[in-house]
TrEMBL record:
Residues 6-227 form the AAA-ATPase-like domain. It comes from the Bacteria. PANTHER family: AAA-ATPASE-LIKE DOMAIN-CONTAINING PROTEIN, CONSERVED PROTEIN, WITH A WEAK D-GALACTARATE DEHYDRATASE/ALTRONATE HYDROLASE DOMAIN. The lineage of its organism: Bacteria, Thermotogati, Thermotogota, Thermotogae, Petrotogales. Transmembrane segments: none annotated. This is AAA-ATPase-like domain-containing protein.
């Protein structure tokens, strides 16, 4: 009988005692003991952080005898460590993973409740407290203390426990940044940051009662005053080598798991879907997805179907033109070069700081880094989507954006392809008026809407078209080129032009210049190379919410002034030879005007 899978389990003791399947990461304990006094470990959600913190709690906790939990694990062979550390330390363990609220008042209540539970658990120290200390202790337990006492409570508890046991304390804090992310999402960030910062700062900075502290989370937010003055802080992120194989599954661990459960699988498919992470140079698989793959016995987007994606979706939707363009490149399998700021600042997300956004994407597991370089005191990384599961998330996010904003690209293009240019124009203008604010929350950058539309095309039309945007074509660069996979269909070129008041007489003139640019720079060559000669060219000029559209479907719009004169003379019955001499056009060219462009 095979061991049960630990789906939904993050308590180490119950997992071992129930003889569930466990990938042995116990040597993390040895590395933690041999590392710095205060450790901050950041990894994406569902990569084993809570389970590891739970394992260390049961290993160090002086109030328990847990030798039986570790006898069959790798750490048990480290006899010196077992003798000196197994259940030999007072432990303060607190998790913030459930501190989620859309308002400050409730978040404050959740935090004080968690601290009250912590004090209640260690109520045994009450007997060695002074009368004054007992008063504060009771206030924390009864949730009646003021903020200053809450801010100092973890440090105070470490002092009491050190006095009680005669040993310095190990502090384990799980998902420390959950309330910070919640505060950012729901608009009370500035109010919560000082409380959280002081709570951690007092517990970790110059705390003489502290043996070691380990904090886990998704992001490193050291610039937010949380770790100000904590000089003994050592950090492990996805960018460095510390603990790089202790979170997530290595290739060998995945192979061992699949073999144990006798699961037949295509190695390439598993790699494509769940591999791709780079933790400090080690190739890592998503553990949550692998466990669910074994349980369900089929490939699927397991990690992406869990909660925690809202912020990423919001940043894609509201992102700058550059963010949207780069998301398009990422979906198309390309790498993007960007600056990564390890000291993540949530406040910078409000400023559309691209470095902050890419840092969050990377640390949250939505990107992987492939290489880095340092130049002029700036470190840049090349990043890409790690695997098919995450790519599926990006694709679905863009499709949801189109759905939520009522954009029906296929319907609009159908009108374009059958020659209903006026209907297409009316639809597009209506779309712009009604959905511009969806992509541009500030109302000041309509380019976000148009680039969001391009991003939507790159996802929504990829089954029927090869989509190219901002690529070299002919003699220049076109915004969108749609090359039909069915060669009997029509190719489409769309050029977006922002109205320039200094260069363009009117918005219509700007649109005409866009069409002229398509012709002069021979954008159609890209489509003709695929054997498609029937091509629709559209130029869309915009000024905020005002839009003008010109296309080669419009009567006479592509004719030069000389060609228009020739047409007029033809209408008046003037001889072709005379028209040729007058307009300097060849007779052949004039004959074409009579056959192809007759009104």
């Amino acid at each position: 009988m095979k061991k049960r899978l630990p789906i939904g389990r993050s308590d180490f003791k119950s997992l071992i005692e129930d003889n569930m399947y466990f990938v042995d990461k116990s040597l993390l304990i040895k590395e933690v003991i041999e590392s710095g006094d205060v450790l901050l470990i950041t990894r994406p959600r569902r990569f084993g952080k809570t389970l590891s913190q739970s394992m260390m709690k049961y290993f160090f906790d002086i109030t328990q005898n847990n030798e039986h939990l570790f006898k069959n694990l790798k750490i048990y062979k480290e006899k010196n460590i077992i003798e000196k550390h197994l259940n030999k330390h007072p432990v303060i363990y607190i998790t913030f993973k459930d501190l989620k609220s859309n308002n400050l008042k409730k978040m404050h209540a959740l935090l004080t409740m968690e601290l009250s539970r912590l004090y209640t658990k260690h109520e045994y120290v009450f007997e060695i407290l002074s009368e004054k200390e007992k008063i504060v202790f009771k206030e924390i337990m009864l949730e009646t203390a003021d903020d200053a006492k809450y801010e100092n409570c973890i440090r105070s508890l470490s002092e009491y426990m050190e006095r009680y046991y005669g040993k310095k304390v190990i502090i384990l804090i799980d998902e420390y940044d959950t309330p910070i992310q919640q505060a950012y999402l729901h608009g009370y960030y500035d109010e919560i940051i000082s409380l959280i910062g002081n709570l951690f700062g007092m517990a970790l900075k110059d705390n003489v009662y502290l043996e070691k502290a380990v904090l886990t989370g998704i992001t490193r937010v050291s610039k937010e005053s949380i770790f100000t003055g904590v000089n003994n802080l050592k950090i492990s992120t996805v960018l460095n080598e510390l603990f790089n194989d202790k979170y997530g599954l290595t290739k060998e661990e995945v192979e061992e798991t699949l073999k144990y459960y006798e699961l037949e699988y295509e190695e390439k498919e598993v790699i494509d879907w769940y591999n791709g992470y780079n933790f400090g140079g080690v190739e890592i698989y998503n553990p949550f997805s692998i466990i669910n793959l074994v349980d369900e016995k089929k490939i699927g987007p397991y990690w992406m179907n869990t909660s925690g994606n809202y912020l990423i979706r919001k940043l894609i939707k509201e992102g700058t033109v550059n963010i949207k363009d780069n998301v398009e490149k990422l979906i198309n399998g390309e790498e993007v070069e960007c600056e990564i700021i390890e000291t993540m600042v949530y406040g910078d997300l409000n400023l559309n700081s691209e470095s902050a956004i890419w840092t969050l994407f990377l640390f949250s597991g939505y990107l992987k880094w492939t290489s880095k370089k340092r130049q002029n005191n700036i470190t840049t990384y090349k990043v890409k989507i790690p695997n098919e599961e995450v790519k599926d998330f990006f694709v679905q996010t863009v499709r949801n954006m189109l759905r939520e904003s009522n954009i029906s690209i296929e319907n609009m293009l159908l009108n374009l392809k059958v020659g209903r240019i006026k209907t297409f124009t009316d639809q597009f203008k209506d779309l712009t008026m009604n959905t511009l604010s969806y992509f541009d929350v500030s109302g000041k950058e309509p380019e976000r809407f148009y680039h969001g539309l391009i991003l939507g095309m790159s996802v929504g039309l990829k089954e029927k078209y090869i989509i190219k945007s901002n690529r070299e074509t002919g003699l220049g660069r076109a915004d969108v080129i749609l090359i039909p996979k069915d060669k009997t269909d029509k190719g489409i070129i769309i050029e977006f032009k922002k109205y320039n008041r200094d260069e363009d007489k009117s918005l219509k003139d700007s649109a005409k210049n866009g069409l002229k640019q398509i012709n002069e720079k021979k954008y159609e060559e890209e489509i003709k190379n695929y054997g498609i000669n029937d091509i629709i060219k559209v130029s869309i000029a915009f000024d905020k919410k005002e839009v003008e559209i010109v296309s080669n479907l419009d009567k006479d719009v592509e004719l030069t002034p000389e060609e228009r004169m020739a047409k007029e003379l033809l209408k008046n019955g003037v001889d072709i030879e005379i028209i040729s001499k007058t307009t300097k056009l060849s007779v052949e060219k004039i004959k074409k005007l009579t056959s192809k462009n007759r009104p």
